[in-house]
Structure formats: structure tokens, C-alpha cells
Protein: Bifunctional aldolase/short-chain dehydrogenase
Organism: Pseudanabaena catenata USMAC16
Amino acid sequence: MKSLWSDREAAEYKTDLGLRVYTSKLLGRDPSLVLHGGGNTSVKICEKNLVGEEEEILYVKGSGWDLETIAEAGFAPVRMAHLLKLAKLQVLSDSQMVNELKTQMTKASAPAPSVETILHAILPYKFVDHTHADAVISITNTANGWERIKEIYGDDVVIIPYVMPGFDLARLCAEKFATEKSDRTIGMVLMNHGIFSFGETARECYERMIALVDRAEVYLRQHHAWEIAAPTAVLKEEARTAIATAIAQLRAEVSQVANFPVVLSSHTNEANLAFGQRDDLHLISQQGCATPDHVIRTKRLPLVGRDVKAYAEAYRAYFAEQSQESTQPVTILDPAPRVILDRQLGLVTVGKSAKDAQIVADIYEHTMAIIQRSTMLGGYQALPASDIFAVEYWELEQAKLKKGGASPAFAGEIALVTGAASGIGRACVDSLLKRGAAVVGLDINPAIEQLYDRPDFVGVTCDVSDEAAIAKALDKAVTAFGGLDMLILNAGIFPTGCRIENLNTATWQKVMQINLEANLILMRECYPLLKLAPKGGRVVAIGSKNVPAPGPGAAAYSASKAALTQLMRVAALEWSSDRIRINTLHPNAVFDTGIWTEEVLADRAKHYGLTIAEYKTNNLLKVEVTSHHVAELAVEMCGALFACTTAAQVPIDGGNDRVI
């Protein structure tokens, strides 16, 4: 564990709050210290209020902010005087605490203060850092963890037995510090939870954290519990097709139990496969979370194997048993797993979105390392189920559940779009992402792979006329997100205008191969996935005005789109029993695509004796049809509005007299 402090970087921050931001970001850079909103930091600053009175203000990390990206706006300023009064109360409910913290903030626009705000207030230090350091948790989560922590740190830290975060933890820490703090104290260890460091400057506090965690790492090394054995498990290439099928089936079963569509993210690297193939997996993985904070994301236990129904039954039994001890009525969460460990699949994580599934993966990969190090140190031992249940069904989390809020239309659903790097295809990607879908974009242009850098998009370079390439692309889609719900067939080519007597066979065959045969292959290969879609599969084909109203010089293009339309009609007849609905759009004169260069536009407008603006709106409604318009309708056809529609052919052309 090394300090990342840089005098050059620190010089950019001129105030205590600025330096608080800087060292918070340093902590956030290291995922072995904090992950996805974990941990919190604070600083106490004296300020004059609007009427000129001097007040001590605690700036503490706000809810919803991540240390790696936090800014000054991410800290909630709370009046210290009131916090210290609250700390003297005998009882304070979570809802009361939240209300008191909000009413004592000096900025109404600031985020909600951390639930550990009172704890930060009672610690008698200017700067306070709190992390969930893997190395420390690997030691605390053992049968004799307390003795080991005492051996490592002596009087340098105050050790606190596990208490649920919030007011009770703050009161216990206040009591402990009153009797156990010494001149040597530079930190605090919360058993099965994490570690704190203190300092009078941002740098001192940060570097004490680094030093304390380093001591834990050194201890693990000295006790041969640091280096995890090199994995040897390998997923054979020939098994990948079977794996993709298994993942898609697993997603369907998890979605059914959850009662909403989910994204599954598969992680079959050697380390994850090796963990999933351990002989003692059922023992070491069924102890509980590394820290209760993780339960909101991962649930208490992973599913080992693929029996989703059995997991759900066990979860309901766990809820029934633990809820009896709850002091307030609680509502059961969905019983679906969030982490799945399997000998063939390695680590599979579940989320309501691709981002959620990735967060679960990040957390559990660190959890696997913690479990293995604790095991080498003498045996992994998590908190009792009752303690973890208390966090999972925390009053504050239940309040969020009751408040709810509408999910995006396509939350947990997966779409595949062809020809996705530009034009209508890219616009479809944007429309799908906007509605909460995870999207796989295929395009022959390698730029597709860098189209977006976000967890809910995967770009795959793929020639849709190559059957093997399509198979590999679908494997990537299933590995990334778990299956397929929506397919938008957009990729196509429009050859240079040519009369039939001059049309060569090669051109005809190429157009048919890309505009028709590739779509047949895609539909055929996607069918097993689409019929597993929790809400039913949906296919939208981008046809053409040339289907109902062909023009001269476009025989190959018009015939290919007409054949595609007929293919969609037959598929609608054949696949309706599998809850797959199929519709076709017929756009015309969509000029913001790669086909239409400025030169071509100018030439065609001149041919008709029109200006470019007149040519773009040369339809009955005098409107310009854009890729966005086509995409919005294509994606809407995948939504609830068209739930009772299949085999439709809808023009989107501003009104064309020949079509009408």
C-alpha cells in the first residue's frame, strides 16, 4: 500500500475543503480501499455564517457521491454544535436522525449527509477518513480477528465491535474513545466493517490510512495469507456456445423469480473460474458478505450452481426467520440472487441494469479475494445472518423501496442493433439507451467499438454477411448482458442507381446477401434468445419506401427490402406462439445518413429543380425525416404502446403520394 500524494497535484487545492476533496479522490482511486460509493471522509472547518457568527461546520461526504470522483459539491455541510448535542441523546431513530441532519445543513442544495455523520462529528480530529480496506476486513473476518487486529495495531487504534452504522455506532464509539483513546491513537477499526484514520491535515490523515492498511497487508504476507494461488481453470473454446445458451436460460429463470427483467454479466476469467471450482465453495461462499454494506448490492449469499428456484425458496425462508426479530414491519425484497458462482460459468452477476450488474461484479471479485485470504489465515467468518439482515432491511432502505419511482421503460432489457455506428442505427442505440436498455451494436466499421464508453453498451465489429462473425457477436452479447429482448435489423447497402438491363449479378448478390440473407441468419440465430425474453421478444426491421413504391434504378435494393418485409411477415406468423412480435418500418428520404453526402444531396435537388432545403422536405407534410425520427418509432415499436401489434408495416416518410 503506497501513498499517492503528489505535492504538484495538491498545490491545485488551496483550502481545507479542497484538500479534503483531493485526498478523498486518492482513496477512491484504489478499489482495495473503497468501491462504488463506499467509505466516507470529512473535515471540520470554522466559518462565519450570514449574520457574522462563527460556526464549526462538519463537511462530510454526501449520499450518492463516489470518493473517486467527488467534488466540493459532494460534501454536506452540517453544524457541529447540533451534531454534538444529538450524540448525547439516549435514543435517536434513523428517520429522526435523517431529519435532524437535513435541518442542520447550511446549504439546502447539498446532498444528504452520510448516515455516519454523527460518528464523524464525535471523533476529536479535524480530518477523518473511513474505508472498507480489503486487507483489514480479511483479518477482522476470522474467528480470532479481534486478537489479530490488536496484535497488528496495539494502542494505535481503538477497536470497536460490530454495531450497525448510524446513531448506535456513534454512541458506542464516543464511549470507547472516552476510555480507550491515547496519545498514540491515529485510527479506529470497526470489526467486520472497516477502518478509520485521523489527522490534523488532509495529508496526515490520508497517509495514516495508507500506513495502517499497509500494516494489515504486511501481516497477511507474514502469515502466508496474501498471495492467492495462481488459477489454473480454463474455459474451453468449444464450450462457449453451450455457455451462452446456459447463461440465457439462467437469465430467464432469474427474471422470472425477480418478477422483472434483469441483466446478467458473465466473468469467466481464470480467477473467477478457479473460485467457482473450489472443492470447499459451498462452505466458504455461504458465510455472508465481507461487510454488511455490500448486502444491498449482492444479497447476503451467492447462488452456487444454477437452481434459481431453490435459492428463492431459501431466501424467503431467511426473510421469514429474520423478520420475526425486526422491530418494525418490513417488506420482502425480490428473492432473486445477485451473485451466481458456477463451475462452468465462473462468476455471473445480476442487476436491474448493466451498471448494477457491473457494480456487483466489482464488489464480489474483491469479496472472493477477502474470503480466500481469511481462509488462509484460519477460516473466513462473516457476521451472523441477523446483523446482515438488519442492514439489508434497514429502515432507511425500506423507505427508499416504498418511495419507489418509475423505472426506465426498458430497464433490465437487452437490445441488438445492426449498422449501429452511424445514421439510423446509431440513433436507435441512443433511443434504446435513453429508455434504460443495455445495447449491443454491430457494424462493419471498427469505430463501433469506441462509440460509447459506458457499462450498458458493447460495440462489436461485425460483417453481418459473415455467419461465423454473427455467432461470435451473439456470444459477446450474451456474455456481456445475459440474453436478448429486442433486435433492430438496420444494416444494409444501397448501390449506385442502375437499370435492370445493366445490373450485374455480383451487385445483385451482394445486395441480397447483406440486405436479406444476413437478416435471415440474424433472426435464426437470435430466435433461441428472443423466445426467452422475460417480456417477449421484439424484432423491428428497417425496410424502405421502395417496398410499397419502388423507383427506377433500384431493382436490387427494392427487391431485397421487399423480400425482407415478406420474411418478417412469415416470421410473425411462425413466432407469435413464442411471444415474439415483429414489425417493419418503411422510411424514405432520411438524409442524415452515410449514403447522403452534400454532393449527392445537391445533385439530386438540382435534378428535381429544388433547393436542398426543399428537397429534404419534398413530402406531403413538408417535414424533414431524420434518423432520430425513425429510431424513436423503431424503439417505440419495441415498447408497451405496440404490445398488441405484430406484422405491421408503418411508413415514416412525411407522406408520400405514391405510397398512399
